[in-house]
Amino acid sequence: IVEPNNLTPAPLVEQNSNSNLNTIKLAGAAFRASAFLIDSALILIFSLSIAFLISIFLKPELELSTIDSNPYVILFGLFNFIVGVCYFALFNVVKGATPGKKLYGIRVSPMNPVDKLTYPKSFVRETMKLGIPSIPVIGWILNLINFLIIAFSKSKQGIHDRVVSSHVIVVNKAISLWKQVVIYLALIFLVAILTG
After folding, report:
1. Please, how many CA atoms are within 13 Å of residue 130, restricted to the half-sphere of its CB?
2. pTM (2 decimals)?
3. What is the pLDDT of residue 65?
4. Burial class of residue 28 in the structure, from the number of CB atoms within 10 Å of its CB (0-12 exposed, 13-18 middle, 19+ buried)
5. Which residues are within 8 A (CB) of 131 and not within 5 positions of it... i.e. 6 or more apart?
6. Is-contact 107 92, C-beta < 8 A?
7. Is 47:192 a contact under the CB 8 Å cutoff?
8. Strand 166-170 vs strand 106-110: parallel, antiparallel, or unpaired?
9. 8, 151 in Cβ contact below 8 A?
10. How many CB atoms lie within 10 A of CB 105?
11. What are the pLDDT tens digits along the chain (196 aa)?
12. Cβ neighbourhood burial of 5 (10 Å; 0-12, 13-18, 19+)
């Protein structure tokens, strides 16, 4: 009787975050911030368009002296936050990246490459990312710290990335600088028209 040669399965290689970091290119803070600005402008344009349509029917009185306590401004902020969380979370799961991230050739990916970014993890990630600046008084300081963590840490992970074990990786080449300038100018023009 001949025994089969080595039919035992090979040991599973444990994939840790350190080996993953050596085989992939992590997206830096500059590309992430640029993609975020483009996505934020698209969200703002959508939200302002909805607010404009609503204002046609409701004709709210908006005085600058009461802008902080005006219920329409508070509702607009809440609406914009919800739209933003849904926009980022759904694009990252369904399309792999938001339009801004696609322009810069980056995407959100789980730390373990065999895992898939799930809806719950994506919603938690985006709620934290957009919620940090919303914390009264210290929100913007925490957001700056989060940005600095992304910029200077080896893993390039913000707080929102670490909570759901994700990172942002480079998958393609970014668009050219002149195309970036054209896109930014077009978005500024659209926002100016809608707020105008």
Report:
1. 23
2. 0.80
3. 46
4. middle
5. 81
6. yes
7. no
8. antiparallel
9. no
10. 18
11. 444 444 433 333 334 444 454 578 999 999 999 999 999 999 999 988 888 887 777 665 555 445 556 677 778 888 999 999 999 999 999 998 999 999 999 999 999 878 888 999 999 999 999 998 888 889 889 999 999 999 999 999 999 999 999 999 999 999 999 999 999 999 999 988 887 7
12. exposed
| Of the candidates 97, 115, 105, the residue with the CA atom closest to the CA atom of residue 170 | 105
DSSP H helical ranges for the chain: 17-23, 29-58, 71-94, 99-103, 119-131, 139-152, 159-163, 177-195
How far is residue 16's CA from residue 14's CA, in Å, rounded to a whole number? 6
Cβ contacts of 102 within 8 Å, gap of 6 or more: 95, 172
Amino acid (1-letter code) at residue 14: E
